[in-house]
Amino acid sequence: YDLTQPPSVSVSPGQAARITCSGDKLGKKFAWWYQQKPGQTPVLVVSLDDKRPSGIPERYSGSKSGDTATLTISGAQELDEADYYCQAWSGGSVIFGGGTKLTVL
Amino acid sequence: QMSLKESGPTVVKPTETLTLTCIFSGFSLSESEAGVGWIRQPPGKALEWLSLLFGSGDERYNPSLSNRLRITSDPSKNEVVLTMTNMDPVDTATYFCAHITGIDAFDFWGRGTLITVSS
To answer: CB distance B103–A89 less than 8 Å?
Structure first.
């Protein structure tokens, strides 16, 4: 089972950044999103498709349409530059997407 | 507050067996839905899930690596051990352990340990 993400997304500061994650029948599964900055451990930013864990800024949101989950960062800032990974479960296994590098400049 | 820390060798030789230990605190594997997972990340590459052990004793493995992996726990020491056999240079990566509750996401992570496979 694969989760497909675009390798990179680039936006200007203040614009909305949208990162997609597609997978077979993902519409019937939950998706989670992690942020990983260079040299740091991943941080969960969206849970169960669209739930924001405690401490995550409101500009982070998740949604899903069909078999594509989307992480949206409204008003992206330079501090949001990072790699973002989606995650799902399939067949009793944890699956990570290939990651998307977000550039804000 | 939960914390996890990985320990293991920094270098292993090709064909050797890697043994990694995750020492954790702030939760207990006596709770059936509590779990500890292992995830690795080759330099500059994506996260890859390896294995997961729930307090219920349920063991999960990445199907592509299952014949090389074994996960065990010592609840009395709050430790989870992952062994990976027949190491190869392509297994060079940072190995993370992380906490999970049920069929969910990894919410607390260790800092990771870089394992280099080289002769």
So the answer is: yes
